Amino acid sequence: MALSIAIVGAGGAVGSALLMHLLKSSTLQAGDEVVLLGRGTPESSGRLFAIRMDLLDAFDESAIRISVCESIGDLKADVVIIAAGYTISPSRRTRRDLAASNQPLFQSLAAKLSRTVPNALFLIVSNPVELAVGIFAAHMEPQRVIGIGAQQDSLRFARAIASQIGVHRSKVRASVLGEHGQAMVPLWSSVHLTLDEPETASRLAALIERFENSDTRSEVNRTRDTLESLLADHQLAAAYEVMEHVSPSTRIMLEPFITHSQIHSTPNATANATLEILGAALMADGRRVHGQVQLHGQFQGIKGVCGVPLEVRLTGWQVSSQLRLTASEIADLHAAAEAIEVAIQESRKTECELLTHKR
Fold first, then answer.
1. Which of 126, 260, 317, 334 is the most buried (most CB within 10 A)?
2. Is 10 annotated as contributing to ligand binding?
């Protein structure tokens, strides 16, 4: 049976990158469909029709159908990827700013999509991802809603480790749970190699021994001061060089800070993480991925939105039992879940204040 994947926000930077990565990958087969959705305005629809024609010229040999849906009410899809909304910008510098801008959009999309495609699998790309996941999970089955932030952070963690021991990321597995932000929880206990090379294993063991119990928060604070000074002088290359000499835990927290000083999103890394989760859902082979989901005690007793290890099918997610966290990692994860809940409650309070002000 043909598969239909819809991308909401297909005309934006992240949505466009997702389209390209999806069509260039082997994820879809002949006869499958990609559906492009925008804001529903004439300008947005016009842009999507133009993008469609460009993609047909580029990928017609794949025999993948590419269509534009001008109204959410007409949508039919097996998977819906949410890539709509504002990104970090000079006028929206913090996650709180981003939440205030995107929360009404998340509410509107979740309400409409829950009526038109209630049985779809939803992959949430938009930020703040925890806020979006909470809103969408309140409108439909929580098991059908997955935020991709934890997978993106896990891939960054694996790359940071791989670069320090001289191998490619494909040789390293690593997990990051918690928030897609400063309350992320890198799990050193999860780090392992996918190859049997004693010398590489020795380098990894030395790296873990050096950094596993280091004070990441203090290093982040010290390094951020250095980065801010370098960025103020437009020394981007020097700022990235600093990242080569810090712990992988610090690197994954601060490297995006450098990148976002120049570009408002990371569309290619985001697309890659999204396709990894999508691929896991299509294969349904029990592989471990990571995502922000609405929990009701399924993982470490946490209730609320949090990034956790998952196994995914088109029918939804379940918590993966492949990880064994240390006591300190469990404590950090609970602290992250609490921080996420505080941020979500602050966002709701801000929305109420804005509505009251408008009245």
1. 126
2. yes
Q: Is the model's pTM score more than 0.90?
A: yes
| Residue of 180, 290, 296, 357 with catalytic role | 180
Does residue 264 have an active-site annotation? Answer: no
The reported pLDDT for the residue numbered 264 is: 83
In the chain, where do the E strands start and end? Answer: 4-8, 33-37, 65-69, 79-82, 121-124, 145-147, 172-178, 184-193, 289-296, 303-313, 316-319
Domain housing 43: 4-149
Instruction: Give the CATH number, domain containing residue 139.
Output: 3.40.50.720
38 appears as a binding residue in the annotation: no
Q: How many domains, in total, are found in the chain?
A: 1
For the residues 64-74, what does the mean pLDDT come to? 95
Nearest residue to 87 (alpha-carbon basis) of 13, 149, 150: 13
Is 11 marked as a binding-site residue?
yes
Please report, as a single letter, which amino acid is at residue 281.
A
Q: Domain for residue 75, yes or no? A: yes
Nearest to 171 by CA among 142, 204, 141: 204
C-beta of residue 191 within 8 angstroms of C-beta of residue 173: yes
Whether 355 has a pLDDT exceeding 60, the answer reads no
- Polymer length in residues for the chain: 359
135 found inside a domain:
yes
pLDDT (average), residues 178-191: 96
Contacts of 234 (CB under 8 A, 6+ apart): none
